[in-house]
């Protein structure tokens, strides 16, 4: 179960390469609303191993009637980025009207924007919107190398000395504790990047005593702890054992196997797809931003849309119950 998606026919107009291993694709989209807020995302229909699937990407600032996305070709791709990299002008697919779960508040006296790698995609739009409105803003942007920093040149032109870049190749790193300490009391931070960056940011922000409501973040990709592996999911209530491929999420595998699930964001943020873990014969690779570090250590629940087992078999309860009168979807307890 998820929010209703409004699908639109889409055709590739332009292909660009704004950074090493990053492809930007602009689509002409039929009957598209005229505008959307920075931080919005769209769903796109892709083909993976000959089968239809849906992937979600941030929408970059786009001209009316178009949607532009930027996708990094990930070495552990589940197929979405590989599909986008096969597109060429004239190719057709379908995309949804953008929706936003990573919104700017427009209430702060100063905004700190933090981007790691391809996490620049929502931050780029935020930086442009804040700068256009004359808001106080600072952007810190890091990647493995300068060549992998998409849109860095445009952002330097836009922000001047309000942007600072960091290259791991040159031994540079964020000083998040110092950046947070420099924020005014009503300042806010917006982050998008790898799982490890966001975990560090959440812990430092909590330690600073600042309100958690003033830290906003969006996660992508894997946790960096384990490579993608296939594994099995045992669902005793349905008397099924479901195989999850290395290029597939547990949620997708369960749904394809006819297991009823409740879900929405597919990005490890809302927690609706969380399942109860009864037993696990392998380590768990938590990739969500919904559960706390303590909750993950308990190994009682995991988000099916992004988290995985590292091989082996896990036994779960999905939380779905069907009484004698009607089928009802419930979040796991």
TrEMBL record:
Residues 231-322 form the 2Fe-2S ferredoxin-type domain. Pfam families: FAD_binding_6 (PF00970), Fer2 (PF00111), NAD_binding_1 (PF00175). InterPro entries: 2Fe-2S_ferredoxin-like_sf (IPR036010), 2Fe-2S_ferredoxin-type (IPR001041), 2Fe2S_fd_BS (IPR006058), Beta-grasp_dom_sf (IPR012675), Cbr1-like_FAD-bd_dom (IPR008333), FAD-bd_FR_type (IPR017927), FNR_nucleotide-bd (IPR039261), MRET (IPR050415). Residues 5-105 form the FAD-binding FR-type domain. It comes from the Bacteria. This is PDR/VanB family oxidoreductase. It comes from Rhizobium lemnae. The lineage of its organism: Bacteria, Pseudomonadati, Pseudomonadota, Alphaproteobacteria, Hyphomicrobiales.
